[in-house]
């Protein structure tokens, strides 16, 4: 399944707090950080592992080594992904980080997205690339960010991490890059005439940064 909903009750609780219009920006940012951590740990579960022996101060124990944790790239789409990525890096502390700065221009009936800065680490086929943005609305921003990632060359695994996605945004990404995996906490049904997700949580960037 290319789309995975994080149905952990604590993730759903955190999303509910984010949706609440009375949640202030400090708690909104904290909620995104916590969700990033939970989604990150869910993603870790999909990495292969092998059993290893370890020497404790008192003897030998059998444990696990997770394969590929040192081959992770996290790309954050400014601004709203910043707190989400702060949480994701708790699960992937050795991740190399990329940045895409994008601005959505909401017009009646359509969305245009300008990418005005992009910087990627070197990426190889052995890497898992996680592109994070809490809102996957029309999917235009995410598509432009993935284009920036592909400019670096051939990728291995590509994972989109969002908090609220829409069927339209998911289709836009998967129709172009069908092997992409999408992790999200919820899929909301609609976009309004300014391409905001309904019911959604409003403007994630504005709510996180109190603008
Ligand atoms: O799927 P789309 O229709 O492209 O919309 C999603 C994008 O819109 C918002 O960004 P915005 O341009 O408002 O920037 P911000 O994060 O700085 O608020 C959001 O943070 C996503 O990046
Ligand atoms: O609903 C939406 C859509 C795009 N960006 C947001 O922050 N919220
Ligand atoms: Mg915004």
From TrEMBL:
Cofactor(s) needed, names only, are: Mg(2+)
Cross-referenced InterPro entries: PRTase-like, PRTase_dom, Upp_A, UPRT
Q: Supply the SUPFAM superfamilies for this chain.
A: PRTase-like
Q: What is the free-text note on the cofactor?
A: Binds 1 Mg(2+) ion per subunit. The magnesium is bound as Mg-PRPP.
What are the entry keywords? Allosteric enzyme, Glycosyltransferase, GTP-binding, Magnesium, Nucleotide-binding, Transferase
GO molecular function terms noted in the UniProt entry = GTP binding; magnesium ion binding; uracil phosphoribosyltransferase activity
List the pathway annotation: Pyrimidine metabolism; UMP biosynthesis via salvage pathway; UMP from uracil: step 1/1
Family per record: Belongs to the UPRTase family.
Q: What is this protein called?
A: Uracil phosphoribosyltransferase
Which organism is this entry from? Pyrobaculum arsenaticum
Gene for this protein?
upp
């Amino acid at each position: 399944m290319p789309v995975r909903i994080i149905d952990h009750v604590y993730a759903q609780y955190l999303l509910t707090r984010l949706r609440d219009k009375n949640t202030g920006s400090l708690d909104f940012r904290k909620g995104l950080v916590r969700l990033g951590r939970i989604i990150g740990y869910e993603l870790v579960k999909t990495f292969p592992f092998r059993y290893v022996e370890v020497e404790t101060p008192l003897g030998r124990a059998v444990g696990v080594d997770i394969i590929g944790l040192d081959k992770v790239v996290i790309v954050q789409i400014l601004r709203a992904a910043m707190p989400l990525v702060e949480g994701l890096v708790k699960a992937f502390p050795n991740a190399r980080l990329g940045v895409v700065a994008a601005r959505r221009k909401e017009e009646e009936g359509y969305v245009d997205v300008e990418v005005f800065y992009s910087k990627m680490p070197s990426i190889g086929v052995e890497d898992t690339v996680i592109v994070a943005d809490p809102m996957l609305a029309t999917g235009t921003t995410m598509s432009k960010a993935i284009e920036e990632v592909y400019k670096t060359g051939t990728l291995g695994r590509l994972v989109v991490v969002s908090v609220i996605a829409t069927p339209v945004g998911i289709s836009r990404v998967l129709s172009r890059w069908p092997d992409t995996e999408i992790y999200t906490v919820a899929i909301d049904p609609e976009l309004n005439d300014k391409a905001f997700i309904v019911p959604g949580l409003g403007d994630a960037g504005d709510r996180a940064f109190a603008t």
